[in-house]
């Protein structure tokens, strides 16, 4: 049984989802130091050149080759500018289930890029990889991430209480201006049948399509 994802790129009308390369490092550092990214992810802060190079060269590729998932940079089709990232993790190859996570650069928010990229990845997973379930976990106060799940047709399945550490701004101290806080996680499930009609609805609402091709 296959236990790793192929080394792929996925194209939509507006986006290209592809493996990270070293040219992405400056934009990735900028994105990862954005306040909302710092607040809702577990990435190091401040996010440095060393962190970014380690991610691109070692950690992200190892996610795929080790069988845990896959990490893709999300770029604009026309400009090639990095708009975010999307990844699969905690993949269970026996049950064909995995967890999706996504980050959007601050300048690219409000354009529907996160929804478009996760939808493209989900369509590829269900149609071409034979997967049966995708799970999303969103912090209770991260309404933007929850809206992505809702637009995709995900079903809210429950709450994991006190399940993750997030970060919040502090007024002073030696912690770089951030302190850890506990947060609940909302668990969302997406099955193949949940995607029926979603791409068409998003296209009508936002003028963009989703999954077109992969190689």
Automatic annotation (TrEMBL):
**Per its record, what are the GO molecular function terms?**
acyltransferase activity
Positions of the N-acetyltransferase domain: 15-171
Q: Which residues form a coiled coil?
A: none
InterPro entries in the record, alphabetically? Acyl_CoA_acyltransferase (IPR016181), GNAT_dom (IPR000182), Ribosomal_N-acetyltransferase (IPR051908)
UniProt KW keywords:
Acyltransferase, Transferase
**SUPFAM superfamilies the record matches:** Acyl-CoA N-acyltransferases (Nat) (SSF55729)
Question: Which Pfam families does UniProt cross-reference here?
Answer: Acetyltransf_3 (PF13302)
UniProt EC number: 2.3.-.-
**Stated name of the protein:** GNAT family N-acetyltransferase
Taxonomic lineage of the native organism: Bacteria, Bacillati, Actinomycetota, Actinomycetes, Kitasatosporales
